[in-house]
Amino acid sequence: MYNYQSLKKTTGQDVAFEPSDNLYINGTALDQLVEGYRHLTVTGRGIVSQTVKSTSVPGRRGVWVDDVSDDERELIIKYKLEADSSSQLRDRFAQLNKVLRTVAPSGFLELSFKDEPDFTYYGYLSGADEIEETALVVVSKFTLLVPDGYKKKLPQSSTGAISLVNAMAVLPEKITITPTGTVNQVQIINGDKVLSFRGAYTPDRDVVVAWGADEVTITYGGRSILSELERYSPLETFFVKNGDTITARNAKVKEVIWRDERL
Q1: Residue pair 66/124 in contact by the 8 Å Cβ criterion
Q2: Is 201 helix (H, G, I), strand (E, B) or coil?
Q3: Is residue 114 domain-shared with residue 228, that is, in the same domain?
Q4: Which of 11, 90, 151, 173 is surrounded by the most beta carbons within 10 Å?
């Protein structure tokens, strides 16, 4: 999808052109990171298929559905790369290779598009077409694998109230509470879900629960207190929904951070 603009010169310079679906890598347009690069098209931003595992049951119509899960997403980028000499083309391919392997602090390539700037995919370079170099202008494709096909909105925060527009439910990114006194137990509560901690807590330090891509960390004053999490606390399933309000026992909710998401 493109926004076409006049190529007539204005004050001695060409009017800048940027496709409406221009690709951004780690917050910067790829054509600004690699000289001579131009984004042409992208596929893979539409419907994501599901994997349905089923079992045939003798004497029964159809099948028994055992499991349904969302598939990964593949973004296929068609681009043009041009140069003035063969050596310059080699340099520009080297730069493109470098950029497509430069992961952000999140551990992924952070992928966004000009027409959806508030949402980010997290992925990796997973493939590229073979190129027959017969000219100094190359048109080709590369593939970006998004293991979790959902795109994440910019973080939102509150002191407890949750607002989701697109997702049915998400795990928070971080919850911070401050003990209201010298206590031996604090709890984070969302309806019938309770994260309970037992130890020694005072009001001068925060308890922070952070859900990362690979693990959940729990700290008190910077010290890990994962061992103080009480049994039956649903750490991996502490999902929040639109309209939920996070509260605390023997503590005050200082901040809740979450991200909406959509396919």
Answers
A1: no
A2: strand
A3: no
A4: 151
